[in-house]
Each structure stands twice: as structure tokens, then as C-alpha cells.
Amino acid sequence: MANSNVVLHVADVHKRFGGLHALADIDLQVEEGKTHAIIGPNGAGKSTLLNVIIGKLAPTSGQVVFDGNMLTGRKPYQINQLGIARVFQTPEIFADLSVLHNVMIPAFAKRDGTFTLNMLRSLDSETTIRQEAEHMLEDVGMLNRRDMHAGSLSRGDKRRMELAMCLIQHPRLLLLDEPTAGMSRHDTNTTIELLKKIKERGMTKVIIEHDMHVVFSLADKISVLAQGRIIADGSPDEVRGNPKVQEAYLGGAH
Amino acid sequence: MTNFMSRNDLLLFLGFAVVVLAMPIWLTPFGAGYPDLLQRFMIFGIFAVGFNILFGLTGYLSFGHAAFFGVGSYAAVWSFKLLTLDAIPAMIFAVIISGLFALVIGFLSLRRSGIYFSILTLAFAQMSYNLAYSVLTPITNGETGLQLTLNDPRVLDAALGQTFVGQPVPTLLGQQLGGYAGFYFCAGFLILSFFFAQRVAGSPFGMMLKSIKSNQTRMQFTGFNTRPYALSAFVISGMYAGLAGALLAVTDPLAGAERMQWTASGEVVLMTILGGVGTLVGPVIGAWIIKYFENILSALNDNILAQFWSFLPEGVADVVVKVTSKFVGDGWHLTLGLVFVIIVIFLPGGIMEGVRRLTAVARRSGPPGAKSHQPQPAE
Ligand SMILES: Nc1ncnc2c1ncn2[C@@H]1O[C@H](COP(=O)(O)OP(=O)(O)OP(=O)(O)O)[C@@H](O)[C@H]1O
Ligand SMILES: [Mg+2]
């Protein structure tokens, strides 16, 4: 069973909210450099699974191991510093700051760590980080919006910006919770291209998506979640052909 | 443009310094050009600038900052009593003590956020206030207040063989700090305080504080431990409060517990909101306006009002005097409350928002060629 390439291992995780068994006996192995898609109907527990991974929620039982480090019990900021970044389902951004600053902030976390008292340096002298942020914005096609108030962006743009905020940290593991929801077809395709490009650089990704076009363009492996359980996993072709999946999720629509 | 400070920041700083130093001139027509009031403008300006680093940048609303102000005053007076009448050691001592005090209270209060944080700070400040009147009377001299006497040891002054005749007063290198000397001494500190606040706001650290205010959860998922950031902001603003308290003791070497009361804590909140939360100059302007009107309105009485309204017919004048008298003298807080309510409802960004709106209107009605390309500044 022990696969040396496994970088993220979710082992026997359960999560209960009162009477609701939101995650039941989840066992998930994500291989280094691969794109692992998690699909499933609304309320299946997909976002809850990501919340457990990044330390937003503690699992009722079970554990999460990332690259030999036990994540369970660590604080969210410690987990991020280990190299895990996440795009949220509802954008988590700094709405009061400019787009450029939104993207610069994570770069500071990467460079300076969890806390630095750098109050006498001027932000204007941080040219390296500024340029990095501008390149990142260019990559997601938002350089022309760099001085805008992040709060006034469209939903799709907020998401692209949040992606840039994650990518600037060069995480080892990128978690994406419906990264293309709210985007136009054109922006969706740009994002797919961008995510493919990142993959060439060897970044591991877990992606939650309802858009099957996105899933099948990106995923190396798919796990299907329904009512808190993994009901199937395998390569995209295996999953597509699985009758249980057809019934639970795809509903013959594809 | 240097890397040290952008051109705009430099201009703002120079403009601020000029306005402050020229206050004795331009405030004279407003009846405020005398040292006693000018000193208070400086002192409460410092208090508000520091408070804004916590409330304006980080978003944590403390209702207990008067405690640090009071601690600063006591520490300064003790320095005058035990060490020397020179003001500089007193200021340093006061800033260190209030910083340590803020470290403890901040550490405990920042375990909570939002309203719970505010209530914790309020509770700690009221505790300090009550302690000052009870258990701590050996340090605070209770209701009488801590003051200088001829019998104080003043070991440094004694070692230098300095003796004083009459009531001891704080000095700077032997010069007495009364009147305009006191004003310029305080003004120097306000300008320094403003400069430091400007640096903090324009630093990566300042950006982290603003991000905490904007979305603390995101900060945590971005790899920042937000607690020490908020605690640093808390301690810095506590030290500002201590500095202001110490200056009050320099200009009037008497420290009483009443300056730690919750009304004093509330006053700095009002100053900051009135001027404009999160802006650099707003809180200072808020402090000046409140201190100015406190001074003018609380000095008015029925006789002055009667004279003022004497152009009205007799019966009407009586009524008007009766009504307006409720808003002046001791009732000036009523006016303050009204002004505050009006500002919060119509100008939630304070006076600075009013200024921004006016300049926007002026720009729009300006020449069409001067169309400003402004994609919403992000602060
Ligand atoms: N913090 C919470 N407290 C209580 N119940 C929760 C909490 N978070 C999620 N749930 C419940 O757990 C279940 C799974 O939710 P989750 O958000 O993980 O679903 P999802 O698969 O991401 O769905 P969607 O596709 O709609 O985003 C839902 O029934 C939800 O109501
Ligand atoms: Mg979800």
C-alpha cells in the first residue's frame, strides 16, 4: 500500500456535525505532481474535507499527513507554511485592499514567515515582491486591474486573484475549491490553461469541481464523494465508466 | 522619489509639521493661540495617532486606552520625584512602563476579538482605575493625585548638586517647560509620533495590520500568525498613550486617576472616529476639534449666552438662552454627542471623508480636460 510518491495522505478521517456524518471513513492518497479531482453532489462533504486538511476544522477521528508531517492538530498558518495553499469556494480575499496588495501579502508570508516586525522598511522598497506580484497578476490576466479595490471585482475575478494569491507562494500542494465557478467560458479556459502550465512545474493539486469539462481536462485521478463517503476512485476513464458514479452523480448527463 | 519615503508621504509630513509648528499663529484668530490649550492639542493628537495604529489599522477597538495614558502620567511624575526634573528620562521611563503594561493587558485581551475584546479592555482599564484609588494609593496617592514636593529625593539632580527654590517644575536641560517652551516640546513629539505612524502605515508590517482588519481568517490561511501582529499594534498604541500621558505630566506635574476613567478611553475613540478611522491626519484633527470645542463651549455660561442672544426680542431670548445653555458649560458633552451622532450617520468616514468628498466634487466641476484617472484608491 505504501506508495513512496504519496505526498498527502488522508487516513480514516471522520467528521461529524452533531448528528450529521459529513465525512465517513475517508481514505485518500494524493500523489506528488498529480492533479487529483474530487467530485460529488452538493453537500457531499467536499469542502469539509478541504477544511479538515488545512486545519480549519479538526476531524472527529483520523488524521492527515503531508510529506511526513502530521497536519492534524496544527494551526492553519503552520499548515500553510508547510506549503499548502487553498482557493476557497467563496472567495477569501482582502476586500479593503488593492488587487496588487492582495497578491503581495502571501509573498511576504512565504519570504518572512509567520511573524516579522518589519515596520521601518517602506513598502515601496519591496520591489522584488512587487514585481513578483505583477508577474503573477499577468499570468492570471489581471495586471490591468492591479490598482482596483479587491472588493469591487467580479466573482470570477476575485477567484482568479485568489488563485494568484496562492500561486505566488509556490505551494507544494494547491487545494482548489471550485476555482472556475462564476467565471465566463473564456476565463474558465484561461484558468484551465494556467493550471496545466503549473502542473508542468510539478505542483500537486487537489481540485473540487462541478464543471466536468474542467475535471476531465485536468485530472489524473478522480475520487467521487457522496454523502460523506468515497464511492469510487480511479483514472478519469474508470470513473466515467463506473455505474455507481453514473447513478450517484453524473446521473447519465454525460 | 526615494525608497525611504515616497514624495507624497514626504509632502504630507512636511505639511503636517508646518501646520503644527505654526499653530500659535494661525489659531490666534480662533481664540485658541495660548500655550495651555496648544499643549493639549499636541498631547491628545499623540494619543489619537497611536490609538489609530490599533483601531484604524488593525480594527481592534479598545475601550481602555486611558489606562496606558494614566500609567504614563504616573510613571513620569515618579521619574520627576525619584530621579530628576528633566523631562527626557521621564518620557523614556513612561513609555517603557506603559508599553509593559500594554503588553500584559494586550496579551490577555487579544485572546478574544470583536466586542469581547472591547469589553475586556474596558474591564482592565476600570480595574486599573479602581486600583489607583484603593490598593495602589502608595503609588498613586489616591484622590489627591501624585504631585511633586520639595522633599522628593531626585537622586540624579541631587548627585549633580542641583537645588531648587520654590515649587519644582519639569525642565529640559535646565530650561523650564512652561508656556510656549512646553508647547514646542510637545509639538516635537507630535511630529515625531506622526512620522513614526506614517512609517508604520507604509511598511509591510502596516500592510499586515490592514489585512488583519480586512480578513483575519485569510491571513491565517496565508501563513501568518496574526496574534503577535495585533499584540505589537496594541503595545505600540499603548506606548503612544503613555507618551501622551507623560507629556501631560510634563506640562502639569500632577497625575490623578480620573484620566484613566472610561470616559477618557471613550474620548480617544470619539476623536479617532470623528476625524476619520484609519487615516493618518484624521485622528489628530478629531483630537484638535474635540479639545477646541471642549475649551470654548465649557467656558460659556448663561451671562455670555444672554449677551450673545440679546438681539432677539426679550421673551424669545430668554427661551433661546435657556435651551442653548443646556449645550454649553458642563453640558458641552451634549453638543459633542450630537455632533458625533451626525458625523457617524452622514459621514461614517469622519471629517477626512468629508474632505475627500469635497475634493471629488471640486475636481468633477473643474475643467473637463483634467479628468482624473482614479480607479478607487485602496485605502
Ligand atoms: N461548520 C459546519 N457545521 C455544521 N454543518 C456543516 C458545516 N460545514 C458543512 N456542514 C454540512 O456538512 C455537509 C457537507 O458540506 P460541504 O460544504 O462539505 O459540502 P460540499 O460537498 O462542499 O457541497 P457543495 O458542492 O455545495 O459545495 C453539508 O450538509 C453541510 O451543511
Ligand atoms: Mg463545497
Low-confidence stretches of chain A: none
Rg of Cα set of chain B: 22 Å
Q: Return the structural class of chain B.
A: mainly alpha
Report the biggest beta sheet of chain A as strand number plus sense, adding barrel if it closes.
6 strands, mixed
Coarse shape of chain A: globular
In the CATH scheme, the class of the largest domain in chain A would be: Alpha Beta
Q: Your description of this structure?
A:
The complex is a heterodimer of chains A (254) and B (379). Helix content of chain A is 36%, strand content 25%. Chain A is of the alpha/beta class. Chain A has 2 domains: 147 residues, Rossmann fold (3-Layer(aba) Sandwich); 81 residues, no CATH class. In chain A, helix 3 crosses helix 4, helix 3 runs parallel beside helix 5 and helix 4 crosses helix 5. Chain A is globular. Chain A starts with 5 loop residues before the first strand and ends with a helix. The model of chain A has no long low-confidence stretch (mean pLDDT 90). With 379 residues, chain B is mostly helical. Chain B is built from 17 helices and 4 strands. Chain B starts with 6 loop residues before the first helix and ends in a 15-residue tail after the last helix. Chains A and B meet through helix 2 and helix 3 of A and helix 10 and helix 11 of B. The structure holds adenosine-5'-triphosphate and magnesium ion. Magnesium ion (MG) binds next to helix 1 of chain A.
